[in-house]
Amino acid sequence: MTLTSKVTQAARKLTGRPAPRVLSVNTAWYLTPNMIRVVFAGPELDGFPTDRDGGNCKLMIPEVDETKAHFVERLTSGPAPVRRTYTVRKFDASTQELSIDFVAHGDEGPASRWASAAKAGDFLGFAGPSTPKLTQFDADWYLVAADPSAIPVAAVALEAMPRDAKGIAIFEVTAPQDQQEIDAPEGIEMHWQVHPDPHQASTRQEDFIKSMEWPEGRVQTCIAGESGVIRSLRDFLSNEKKVPREDTYISGYWKIGLIEDQHQKAKRDGAA
């Protein structure tokens, strides 16, 4: 029995939940100057669900130069690896390949640091994924907004929409070259805004959404990004535009000045 198999059995026995997968990198490249796409492949993806594009997952990041055997042992014996939340960009069942996009911001965070150096054969831990955020598309009009952290979930939503869908998508990126090709319906107006310093607060998306002509009919949203922006937009959609909660996916993915653990605690405490 391999060490990975032992970890799997131990984790199931202790928690009743599936053990983290230890995924191996197939390829990695800069999709844009500030976005890295990592594609995982291998037998560890056997049985991966085929309907989870856009779902959350937890990535467990190995230490620099850590061996796979040591990392696998840590998954059950500790100390636990650093965990970060990401989005499944695409799983291709025909090739057994899983794509995850990472915002590239150098060595500021462990996941970005790992992704910027990722090459074939590298590994990390993976738990999940959850179900996608949007699975029903029956509105008259769609509003999509995302900063770099949320482009994957927004892109999945746009690509899953009916081809006759109508609406607006507003993406905020770090540089003009960070625009991506997204297979959105022709009726979705795509807007790319440049905010070169994500450490500074931006109101570009808020200003755009609050000043645009509001459509008639039922509106469904997919909005995610920095918590300060999200808090303002959530208030606007709920209190001014009266968009029902069931039609509103809106979520703060991060907060300026906080690492993920701090941000998640702030969300639980109702401060973000």
UniProtKB/TrEMBL annotation:
SUPFAM superfamilies, per database record: Riboflavin synthase domain-like
Protein name: Vibriobactin utilization protein ViuB
InterPro entries: FAD-bd_FR_type, FNR_nucleotide-bd, Riboflavin_synthase-like_b-brl, SIP_FAD-bd, SIP_fam, SIP_rossman_dom
Species this protein is from: Planktotalea frisia
Family: Belongs to the SIP oxidoreductase family.
Domain FAD-binding FR-type: 18-136
Gene expressing this chain: viuB_2
Pfam families xrefs: FAD_binding_9, SIP
Highest taxon above the source species: Bacteria
PANTHER family documented for this protein: FERRIC REDUCTASE, NADPH-DEPENDENT, NADPH-DEPENDENT FERRIC-CHELATE REDUCTASE
GO MF annotation, one: oxidoreductase activity
